[in-house]
Design goal:
Elements: H1 9-16, E1 25-28, E2 34-40, E3 50-55, E4 59-64, E5 69-75, E6 82-87, E7 93-98, E8 102-107, E9 114-120, E10 130-135, E11 138-144, E12 151-156, E13 160-165, E14 176-182, E15 191-196, E16 200-205, E17 210-216, E18 222-228, E19 233-238, E20 242-248, E21 254-261, E22 267-272, E23 278-283, E24 287-292, E25 298-303, E26 309-314, E27 325-329, E28 333-337
Antiparallel strand pairs: 1-28, 2-3, 3-4, 4-5, 6-7, 7-8, 8-9, 10-11, 11-12, 12-13, 14-15, 15-16, 16-17, 18-19, 19-20, 20-21, 22-23, 23-24, 24-25, 26-27, 27-28
Protein name: Guanine nucleotide-binding protein subunit beta-like protein 1
WD repeats: 191-214, 215-256, 302-343
InterPro entries: WD40/YVTN_repeat-like_dom_sf (IPR015943), WD40_repeat_dom_sf (IPR036322), WD40_rpt (IPR001680)
């Protein structure tokens, strides 16, 4: 949706009243289930827009979105599933996380494909790490720790430990399942939202290492969450037939805002588009669902995949009309969708 344009979510609804669109194109060639996706499309011309994908066979593919082909295949996780890929300040520095219990930093500049550093997580789960840029060349990274209920926060690239977040004795939160580092502004202290195995979402203060608030959002483990810091509102999904929307008040207490009943159970991934207009969910029912973020109005069901959709990601093209949605599935395909109103 174009910024500054009068086009609104209602225009999207009108457009979606037609039969749901087909993918703009489909990327094939991973030879394994696709577990994670990350775009890097914000560069200046002649930079080629890129999509990174991580697969169950341990490969990271670098997709050229102009040719729809693989520019490079990265092999750094001992053929163990890759379930998180993120760039660090541009497409030349990549972070990846795999079931080999390693988080790798890659140098991809000038055609290189080398791992420059790595962190051994000692965690056997599949909780994706979370990155937050805190200064030029400095990042915080939150990851599930060796102790099953703990989260460790490191500074990168130094790998200095910032804190370890430990639930109170007897809390019985279980394993952290999903993490989201965020801060209100560059001068605000960084905070962490964590979804746990018992269905709780917890807000952590990294300075004190203490939990500020805890809210039971689901009866089952929290599979994915995202948060809109401007509206102080977040959303989470689990293996149940419900999306939970929650808010954060000025006292930093989490409160249930509303819930939304789903047709079919099971959400693998949730992401709010950067312009905060819509969100996408990845479903165990093979479908991608699009909602308006303001009122959680269902806008579209994108039905293409033949197996569980594991991940969804919005592109960061500078021109809003070029922006895309990508979805990766157990069926080894990546579908690419254009769901923006045209002018």
């Amino acid at each position: 949706m174009l910024e500054g344009d009068v086009a609104s979510v209602s225009d999207v609804i009108a457009r979606m009243a037609l039969p749901p669109p087909d993918p703009q194109f489909v990327l094939r060639g991973t030879s394994a289930a696709v577990h994670t996706l990350h775009f890097s499309c914000g560069g200046q011309e002649p930079d080629v827009p890129i999509l990174f994908s991580g697969s169950e066979n341990g490969f990271i593919h670098v997709w050229n979105l102009k040719t729809h082909r693989v520019d490079a295949a990265l092999d750094g996780h001992g053929r163990k599933s890759v379930y998180c890929v993120q760039t660090m300040g541009g497409k030349d520095t990549l972070l990846s996380q795999g079931r080999d219990q390693r988080i790798c930093m890659w140098d991809l500049a000038e055609g290189r494909t080398s791992v420059t550093d790595s962190v051994f997580t000692e965690n056997v789960g599949f909780c994706r790490c979370s990155l937050l840029k805190v200064a030029q060349g400095r990042w915080l990274m939150a990851m599930a720790a060796k102790a099953t209920d703990e989260v460790q926060v490191l500074e990168l690239p130094s790998k200095t430990s910032v804190c370890t977040l430990k639930p109170e004795v007897g809390a019985k939160l279980g394993m952290p399942m999903c993490l989201k580092l965020w801060q209100l502004s560059c001068r605000s202290p960084p905070l962490l939202l964590a979804g746990y195995e018992d269905g709780s979402v917890v807000l952590w203060n990294l300075s004190t290492g203490k939990a500020l608030s805890q809210l039971v959002c689901h009866q089952e483990p929290v599979m994915s969450l995202d948060f809109d810091s401007e509206k102080a509102k977040g959303i989470s999904g689990s293996s149940e037939k419900v999306l939970s929307i929650w808010s954060l008040n000025e006292q930093q207490n989490l409160q249930v805002y509303k819930t939304h009943k789903l047709v079919n159970a099971g959400i693998s991934d949730i992401t709010i588009r950067p312009d905060k207009k819509i969100l996408a969910t990845a479903g165990w029912d093979h479908r991608i669902r699009i909602f308006g973020w303001k009122k959680l109005k269902p806008l579209a069901v994108l039905d293409y995949h033949t197996a569980t959709v594991h991940c969804v990601s919005f592109s960061d093209h500078k021109n809003p009309s070029e922006r895309l949605l990508a979805a990766g599935s157990k069926d080894q395909r990546i579908s690419i969708w254009s769901i923006y109103t045209q002018t």
